[in-house]
Amino acid sequence: MFGTGEGYNSQSPDGVTAAYRAIRQWLADSPAELMAARRAQAELFFRRIGITFAVYGDAQATERLIPFDIVPRIITRPEWQRLEKGLKQRVAALNMFLADVYGAQEILKAGIVPAELVLMNPAYCLHMVGRQPPGGVWVHIAGIDLVRTGPDEFFVLEDNARTPSGVSYMLENREVMLKLVPDLFDQVKVAPVETYPEKLLETLASVSPRKQRGSHPTCVLLTPGQYNSAFYEHSFLADKLGIELVEGNDLFVRDDIVFMRTTEGPQRVDVIYRRLDDDFIDPLVFNPGSMLGVPGLMSAYAAGNVTLANAVGTGIADDKAIYSYMPDIVRFYTGEEPILANVPTWRCREPEALMYVLDHLPELVVKEVDGSGGYGMLVGPHASKTTIAAFAAKLKANPEKFIAQPTLALSTCPTATDGGIAARHVDLRPFVLTGSDGVRIVPGGLTRVAMTAGSLVVNSSQGGGTKDTWIIDG
């Protein structure tokens, strides 16, 4: 039932780890028709809630549900404590890196990271050079993608420091599981994730530029609108946080102060949780054709009168070529060895690395340095000769746009499929919140699962699903 992935223990009499034993018994006690009914009920819950994920170019984008797997993923408390320590270290280093590359640039002067890789990068925002965001925090919300390859082996696959998404699914997955299998929660002590909205609001309030005694900062969530792929999450989070969901035309700037239009007149805004990319945030500074942003917003930001979370310019930390230097970045700023390792990475911009990658394309995963959502990537072992040849041509033409990684033996989790319980590959995205008053992490995250047998692609935009993540004592 569990294959040889997570939950499997060859030394155990029943072949199952202690952490998964209650899950195994629950599955054994659940007839196939009951599991099918629960899966159908879960889908009905999500349809009623309206939880969707739009895929650009898909005629059915507004109708798509992310597949949900009813079998939870288990991570033990000791495993989580190590992950949590590593996540805090990594996000602290990301914040120090961003403050440095837009400031003194010591890491570039030291030759740890090539200067041209940062300064010539399209994601490097010249408007932020010499500036510090209010509170000194750049990455308020980080989503760090982790993969597991063995019992004690976790690797960071990607850093998401710009506008990480998926936390609404983490919260909704838990709510649905509590409705569907309350008895299982009585048997297994699961750490709560429901406090995330409260922790996020505390984080946003901590970086408000106005901190007068007795005053309560006004926070809003800025969305591109209903046609954005993550709009459901935007409206969900605004509701959970108890803040206004706004679009660009709901805000205006006067005397370098941001105001929100309300029925009672203008209301000053202190913190904007923005789910809008840099290019669209202020047409007076970035894309002049943008109808999504707020004219003058960058002026108010530069004056220190409003906080943007995440800060403008954090996209440089999402770059997969920068990712390849993260172990050195962690050492440079913290003086410590990285607790969480990177996946071994070849930078195709380097001639020797490019030669190796071209010679081993059928074995590797190749990604665009600024790509996301599983788009623009090659999974060599699953690609045709024609696709590999086409990718080789892309690499030769623009090697600086790609990195390559080995095809890892990603861990699998027991997953409910039409054919019964089967092993499927998974990753994990925990969410790290950083404010001026410290770091907050709820115990868990979004587990994404490749619903197709043998597939390594877990992205929702590529047909992947999600499952609840349980941190338990054990």
UniProtKB/TrEMBL annotation:
Q: Where is the Circularly permuted ATP-grasp type domain?
A: 72-450
Q: Which Pfam families match?
A: CP_ATPgrasp_2
Q: Which InterPro entries match?
A: ATP-dep_Glu-Cys_Ligase-2, CP_ATPgrasp_2, UCP005522
Q: What PANTHER family does this protein's entry cite?
A: BLR5612 PROTEIN, SLL1039 PROTEIN
The name of this protein is Circularly permuted ATP-grasp type 2 domain-containing protein
